[in-house]
Amino acid sequence: MSSAMIDLIFQATLDTLYMVAISGFIATLLGVPLGVLLYVTRPRQILARPLLNQVLGIITNIGRSIPFIILMVAITPFTRMLVGTSIGINAAAVPLTIAAIPFVARLVEGALNELSPGLVEAAQAMGATPWQIICKVLLPEARGGIITALTVTLVTLVSYSAMAGLLAAAAWAIWGFATAITVSCRKSCWSPSLYWWLWCRASKAWATTWYVKATVNNLDAYSLFY
Amino acid sequence: MIELNNVSKTYTNGSQVVHALKNANLHIPKGAIHGVIGLSGAGKSTLIRCVNLLERPTEGSVMVDGQDITRLSAAQLNQARHRIGMIFQHFNLLTTRNVFDNVAFPLELTGQSKQAIKERVEPLLKLVGLADKASQFPAQLSGGQKQRVAIARALANEPAVLLCDEATSALDPQTTTSILELLRDINQTLGITILLITHEMEVVKSICHRVSLISAGELVEDAEVGDFFTAPRTQLGRDFLNDFLQLTPPKELVERLQSSPGERTHPVVRLTFSGDAVSTPLISRLARECGVDVSILQAKVESIQERTLGLMIAELLGDAQQTRQAITYLESHQLNVEVLGHVQRND
């Protein structure tokens, strides 16, 4: 293996670790509390707020169900607002974090769900406040489940980060898709602004890809392996 | 100490309204052990959960230690709950804490210092006989030991009241006995009022002073344990008792029983006797004084707390006049006589 290849792999690994670490950390910080909130606001739970619970549930479900690749493209303006650019590993960390938060939340909620309801009941009977129940009963008792949830999240983030890297390469396909939609939407009366915007984004990503490809082509592909 | 006044609890499940508890009235004096017995789904759990408001009653008031806890704010309720201990069928210990820390848990909730916690937990563990298991985790303990930890935990904040929710239902008979002995000790040495719910007559028999019978959300009977075991007033009470004593007439006899006396029949009776009647040789006197022979089909003598209870199913052999006289004689000696039916004479 050539030293160029080794460098490439080394750099890519560092980048992946960086993206996964940043997004994993922030997603844990926000996702665990969200998961706890999803659990304790359920009907008949210690902080039962059925309406809040439904709203949070819907938001979480939307976050969970958008395919990552779509999410990544869709939140580009937000990404740029946050880190000042839409390319690079800092920019990739933003959609990774956004995708991971609801993911962590649902897994944490699931881990809490595994606990015997008797534990909460016993703590209530002892006069524990909801905050004490969360800190002294729910989180410690679900520790194993939460650690599993975070591990699963980190592994998923690794595969998502690869997808983030592939975005550039796949951009031309999205560009073609977006063009077709934009054209068809212009014929209908429905507002095409979203698709127009998608088309612009895809065009830009495609241009970037083309540039990157041209650079990579300068490397002798075969020499990498011999 | 515990007073339920007209407590009702209804659930609405869609369009369906479930009355889990209907107008329950219960008065438990300080230092008493009160049992509530009933079949599954009768409302026992709802009843006991209304005492510390794990279930909030739809109507009625719940007085614990002179305080109407249905009127308290959330913070005041938590304060009141510190003084109401509770143990559960499935123990509900924290699996990630060892025995010591489980017992320390309620003390942590009330914000006590490490030193104070240590000074409180150690004697408690000694009291329940687990001083050597302080650093073990619940998974390493047997069911009986887990319940002992739960009892120590429930006692940590020196409660005035201890609620036992089917506390022995998940335990084997031997362990049940030892846990019940522990509860009786606690009641006697610490003067704690105990309310327990159960479906086992054995539990009521061995430690309760008074017992209430619950059926379909209603308290249908309330009696001293001795009275309940000698003369239950309701059919459900009799069913529980017969089931417990396993005193039912043999099957082939039941098949021959007819409800009204005929020409050549004699009565089959169930005799329940307690107190002095137990030590009086009534059967032989019956033979002498009424000329009736007694054929005993089944008999049992149970001691229920300080009282002795005798039960017997017997055929009274004699003519109609004699047997009627015999029954009157038995009743005049404070025996409870229930004529189960009549059987044809064999001779």
Account of the 3D structure:
Chain B: Keywords: Amino-acid transport, ATP-binding, Cell membrane, Membrane, Nucleotide-binding, Translocase, Transport. Chain B: InterPro entries: AAA+_ATPase (IPR003593), ABC_transporter-like_ATP-bd (IPR003439), ABC_transporter-like_CS (IPR017871), ACT-like_dom_sf (IPR045865), MetN_ABC (IPR041701), MetN_ABC_transporter-like (IPR050086), NIL_domain (IPR018449), P-loop_NTPase (IPR027417). Chain A is mainly α and 226 residues long. Chain A has helices spanning 3-40, 50-65, 68-74, 76-83, 89-113, 117-125, 130-141, 143-187, 193-217. Chain B is of the alpha/beta class and 347 residues long. Chain B folds into two domains: 2-234, Rossmann fold (3-Layer(aba) Sandwich); 247-344, ACT domain (Alpha-Beta Plaits, 2-Layer Sandwich), CATH 3.30.70. Helices cover 37% and strands 31% of the residues of chain B. Chain B contains 13 helices and 14 strands. A six-stranded mixed beta sheet of chain B has the order 6-7-8-3-9-10, with helices on both faces. In chain B, strand 12 (293-304) and strand 13 (307-317) form a beta hairpin. In chain B, helix 4 (114-127) packs across helix 5 (143-155). The longest helix of chain B is centred in the middle third of the chain and has 18 residues, at 173-190. At the A-B interface, helix 6 and helix 7 of A face helix 2 and helix 3 of B.
Label this structure with key terms.
heterodimer, A: 226 residues, mainly alpha, MetI-like fold, 9 helices, B: 347 residues, alpha/beta, Rossmann fold, Alpha-Beta Plaits, 2 domains, 6-stranded mixed beta sheet, 4-stranded antiparallel beta sheet, 37% helix, 31% strand
